Amino acid sequence: MRSSPYRALREALPRFPRRTIRATLVLAVSAGLATAVPAAATGATAAAGKSPIAATTSAATTADTTSGLAAKPYMGWSSWSMQSSQYPGLNPDGNYSYLTEANVLKQTDALATTLKKYGYTYVNIDAGWWMDRNWTSEFDQYGRQTPDPVRFPHGMKSVADHIHSKGLKAGIYLPVGLEKGAYGDGKAPIWNAPGCTTADIVYPDLRTTNGWDSAYKLNFDNPCAQKYIDSQAQMLADWGYDFLKLDGVGPGSFKSGDNYNNVPDVAAWHKAIADTGRPLHLELSWSLDRGHAADWKKYANGWRIDTDVECYCKTLVTWENSVNDRWDDAPAWSREAGPGGWNDLDAIDVGNGAMDGLTNAERQSYLTLWAINKSPLFTGDDLTRLDSYGLSLLTNQEVIGVDQNDSPVARPVTPMGNEQVWGTKNSDGSYTVALFNLGNSPASVTANWASFGFTGTASVRDLWNHQNLGTYKNRITATLPAHGSRLLTVRPGGARLAATAYEAESADNTLTGNASVATCDACSGGKKVGNLYLDSKLQFNDVKVKKNGIYTIRVAYVSGDPRSVTVYSNSGNGTSLKFPSTGDWNTVETVTVQLGLKAGSNTITFDSGWDYSPDIDRIDVPKSP
Predict the structure, then answer these.
(1) pTM recorded for the entire structure
(2) How far apart are CA 273 and CA 232, in angstroms?
(3) How far, in Å, are 77, 101, 132, 170 from residue 154 at the CA level?
(4) N or C: more exposed end of the chain, with fewer CB within 10 A?
(5) What is the pLDDT of residues 474-533, one digit of tens each?
(6) What CATH number has the domain spanning 412-496?
(7) CATH top class, domain 2-40+73-181+218-407
(8) In terms of DSSP bridges, do strands 411-412 and 419-425 run parallel, antiparallel, or are they unpaired?
(9) Element (DSSP H or E) covering residue 84
(10) Crossing angle for the helix pair 360-372 and 397-404, nearest 10 degrees?
(11) 189 strand-pairing partners
(12) Which residues contact 499 (CB under 8 A, 6 or more apart)?
């Protein structure tokens, strides 16, 4: 059976302006959350009084943890970046024509020679392996995808065998649902399921699903639907595949609603994989709904948190489309990753500057963010054409170690803006600290030790340059190029920072406008101040310090999406600061802000202006500047 409806959808979608789509979605979501802000948030997450970067419990209820799958973020190569690019010479026979058996084997051999010893082990074949060069799909008699004989003349098992012969693991791709071309008028039998046909596994109205509506939604009320997934899983197991990227999964993939709820599909794949007896890493794509994070963790080993990183242009990626989006989007997912399942930021195309379309500074920042977020590290570069700088990035074992160690995912310790500091506490008491300049011109970025809960001296190591930088007191400042970064290990030599906690809900504070106290199980004291919108204020009164100076104030807050608030002390004018998302309205996180305080009594004000601001749990004010 052959069909082509997938082609136009797959080719058209990447050309939508990603930032436009994202803005539309964010506005819609923000509007919904805004109306929900007055309601009290509940749930138990971050406990009061913890260090701002204290180690948190990793996600434990993930799929197949006991079997060792995804104990750490996977590393490897994927075909999609080069397939989707218009870089000269990559796709000479038409769009996506790069994907061939010969090219996969060439990249396999290069991976084995160049990157395998650094931990890169997966060779992942993306969309198109069952399509001809006109993007017409091919299926076997049971409605299962079958390899195009021109692209893969020796079949998919032969390719997997070659990958395995190099000591590597083989990955493959499928879209969620029953592809329309596989329906076959509803008469195609289901493999190993007597009496079941494709008409039995979908809804009678042939409702569509996935990110492109290229498939019919499976109806798992009929056992035949599970049998179909079983047949696909067994086919992949028989071919010897170790990894499956299941794409277009919803809620997510810019789709929502009942038709696009593919949680039953993911659960069916989880069961089908287990029943084959062959371990297979299940990766979900794309822009998955965080509201279903518990489902993704239960049934899968990884989930794409964002749209495609590729630009679908004359390079593989560009900074604006859409590498830099991850700084905004990653924080919401920080608590969802752990052994068995990881937040997937997509491919790391940093190995060849000309083909990648990035400056050297951007390439380093790109990989730095992926590493501190413990994203899978899989490159989409041509491994036969890596330049020396790209190779040094991809093979830096200290940076790879940050991605692969047992510390929690890093979070921003400063508000979102052009100059950002991220960090996480490591099991040995040190901190991984990343400094970013996301602006378009050079800038100085400072990491204050107070943001990490200690004061005094600390020794600092530069991981990218393999250099011990010496001892720094209270802070480190780096001048960074446009879109530049530093990645450091900081070992405290000083003391824990003594601070005084001030609760937002205290009767000593002044609330104006819509601001009100609400119950919050996750907050210290069990309460917070919310409804900070439409010119509302929370003013902390009688904040006492002994000396004049600049103080690093730690703010514990709750915000289901990134929101801004103007913060100032005493009669100052203040600055509008965007706080990263905490992921939902039941989770507390912290950022630090710097304010000038005078000896004696002070006020600290959180002013919403005419926007919607985060809910505030408490502030911790150091006893010394």
Answers:
(1) 0.91
(2) 9
(3) 21, 8, 15, 15
(4) C
(5) 999 999 999 999 999 999 998 999 999 999 999 999 999 999 999 999 999 999 999 999
(6) 2.60.40.1180
(7) alpha beta
(8) antiparallel
(9) helix 80-84
(10) 30
(11) 197
(12) 554, 620, 621, 622, 623
